[in-house]
Design brief:
single chain, 410 residues, alpha/beta, Aspartate Aminotransferase, domain 1, Aspartate Aminotransferase, domain 2, four-stranded antiparallel sheet, disordered N terminus, binds pyridoxal-5'-phosphate
C-alpha cells in the first residue's frame, strides 16, 4: 500500500517515508523547468570563451526585458541578500539618514543591513500581514529631521504574502527627492513591476524564486540617479559589491565581468528567461494571478482564514492562518513527511501561525491542487475538521471560470 493511501487523512502513526514522491512548493528555491536543469549538465565553460560570452550577453539582454528597463542589470554571484547588500553598500553612508519601510521579515532585512553600514535609519514598522501605506511613508519621511538619501522597501513581502504598491511608494520617495530601492526578490517575474515606466531607481532580485533558476545569482538594476549617488561616496566599505566596477565590465561590448561569473547558473538563467519571454510577461503575470485566486479559494473552502488583506495583486504566495487549537508548526512538517509536499510555515513572529502556499515561478494549476490537498490532509491528521476535496474543488472551479488551467511554458 502506498504511503499516501495509508496515511491520508487518517493514520496518526505514519512517519516520514523517504521514498514518497517529492513536490517542492516553497517560494524559493522554486522548482526548475526540466530544460533549465538539463542545461546545467553541460561542461563548465571558460568565462572568456566565445561560447560563454554569447550566453552571458544574451541573458543580460533578457534580464533587461524581464526587469522592463534599459539599465544595465548588475549581476553578482550571491543569493538575493547579496544584491540587497550591494544597494546598502553603495547608497548608505555612516550617520546619513535613510528610510526603511517594512511589513515583514524580509523588509526588516533592509533595517539590519542599513544599520550594519552605519546609516541613521528612520523605520516605518507596519503590521505584518498589512501593506505599507504610502501616506504613512510620507509622514515618516516628513518627521525625519533631514531628508533621506534613499528609501528601502519590499515589493512582495514573502513572509506574509503582501505585495506592495511600488508605484505609489516610488512617488512618495521622489516627492522627498530620495531614491527608492525595491527588494523584488520573490515578485519579479510574477507581478508586474515596469521599472523604467514607474521610475523606480533600484530593483533588486534573485535567481531562485519567480525566475525559475537555482539559488546563486543576485541582481541590481540601477538607474542613473542611484548610480550617480553611489559614485559620490567611493571611499571604502565595498569591493566585490561596488556597483561601478560591475557596471563598467558589463557595459563593455561584448559584456565582461570583473569577477568569475557563476557560469553554470548563467546557462540556467539564459534558458529560464527565454521560457519566461516565450510565454510572454503579460501571460506570466496572468498565470500567477489565476493560481493565486485558486489558492485563495481553496483556503477559504477549507474553512481557513486567509492571512493578509484582500488583495488581488498578491500573487506570489498565499498564506493561511492555522485554526485555533491546531499546532501550526506541525502542519508543514506533516505535509512534507507524509505527503512529500514541502511548503513553508511562518517565519519570525508568524512562526506556527500560518502556512504559505507558493505560486511563483514554474508553477501550474495542478501544483496548486496538490499543495491545497496536502494542506487539507495534514490539517485533518492534526485534528482539524476539514472535508476531503473541498479545497481542490474550489481551485478547479477557479480554473474553469478562468477558461484554462494555467501552465507555464516548458
Ligand atoms: C527570499 C527573499 C529574500 C532573501 O533572498 P536570499 O536569496 O535568500 O538571500 C529577500 N527578500 C525577499 C522578498 C525574499 O523573498
Amino acid at each position: 500500500m502506498s504511503t499516501l493511501v495509508a496515511s491520508a487523512y487518517s493514520d496518526p502513526t505514519m512517519t516520514a517515508d523517504p521514498y514518497i514522491k517529492q513536490y517542492l512548493m516553497t517560494a524559493g528555491p522554486t522548482p526548475l523547468p526540466p530544460q533549465v536543469s538539463q542545461v546545467m549538465a553541460e561542461p563548465i565553460a571558460y568565462h572568456r570563451a566565445p561560447a560563454f560570452v554569447e550566453v552571458h550577453a544574451r541573458a543580460l539582454a533578457r534580464l533587461r526585458e524581464v526587469f522592463q528597463t534599459s539599465n544595465e542589470v548588475l549581476s553578482f554571484a550571491s543569493s538575493g541578500s547579496g544584491a540587497m547588500e550591494s544597494a546598502v553598500a553603495n547608497l548608505v553612508v555612516p550617520a546619513e539618514p535613510v528610510t526603511v519601510a517594512s511589513a515583514g521579515k524580509f523588509g526588516e532585512r533592509w533595517l539590519e543591513l542599513a544599520r550594519s553600514f552605519g546609516g541613521e535609519v528612520a523605520h516605518l514598522d507596519s503590521e505584518w500581514g498589512e501593506a505599507i501605506q504610502p501616506d504613512a511613508l510620507d509622514r515618516t519621511i516628513k518627521e525625519m529631521g533631514r531628508p533621506p538619501r534613499a528609501v528601502f522597501v519590499t515589493q512582495s513581502e514573502t513572509s506574509t504574502g503582501v505585495v506592495h504598491d511600488v508605484r505609489a511608494l516610488t512617488e512618495v520617495a521622489h516627492r522627498h527627492d530620495a531614491v527608492i530601492v525595491v527588494d523584488a526578490i520573490s515578485g519579479l517575474g510574477a507581478v508586474d513591476l515596469p521599472q523604467d515606466e514607474w521610475g523606480v531607481d533600484v530593483v533588486i532580485s534573485g535567481s531562485q524564486k519567480s525566475l525559475m533558476c537555482p539559488p546563486g545569482l543576485g541582481f541590481a538594476s540601477v538607474g542613473e540617479r542611484a548610480m550617480a549617488l553611489a559614485a559620490e561616496t567611493s571611499d571604502g566599505g565595498r569591493y566585490y559589491f561596488d556597483w561601478s566596477r560591475t557596471a563598467k565590465g558589463q557595459a563593455e561590448d561584448p559584456p565582461n565581468s570583473p569577477f568569475t561569473p557563476a557560469v553554470t547558473l548563467w546557462r540556467a538563467l539564459d534558458v529560464a528567461l527565454g521560457l519566461i519571454l516565450e510565454e510572454g510577461l503579460e501571460n506570466v503575470f496572468d498565470r500567477h494571478a489565476v493560481l493565486a485566486r485558486a489558492a485563495r479559494a481553496g483556503i477559504e473552502a477549507m474553512g481557513l482564514e486567509r492571512f493578509g488583506p484582500d488583495d488581488y495583486g498578491a500573487n506570489v504566495v498565499t498564506a493561511a492562518r492555522m485554526p485555533e487549537g491546531i499546532d501550526g508548526a506541525a502542519v508543514p512538517k506533516l505535509m512534507r513527511d507524509r505527503y512529500g509536499v514541502t511548503a513553508a510555515g511562518g517565519q519570525g513572529r508568524l512562526n506556527g501561525r500560518i502556512v504559505r502556499i507558493a505560486h511563483c515561478g514554474y508553477f501550474g494549476a495542478f501544483d496548486i491542487v496538490i499543495a491545497l490537498t496536502a494542506l487539507e490532509a495534514a490539517l485533518a491528521d492534526a485534528g482539524a475538521d476539514v472535508e476531503p476535496g473541498a479545497a481542490a474543488g474550489a481551485a478547479q472551479r477557479v480554473f474553469s471560470r478562468a477558461g484554462r488551467a494555467p501552465e507555464p511554458v516548458a
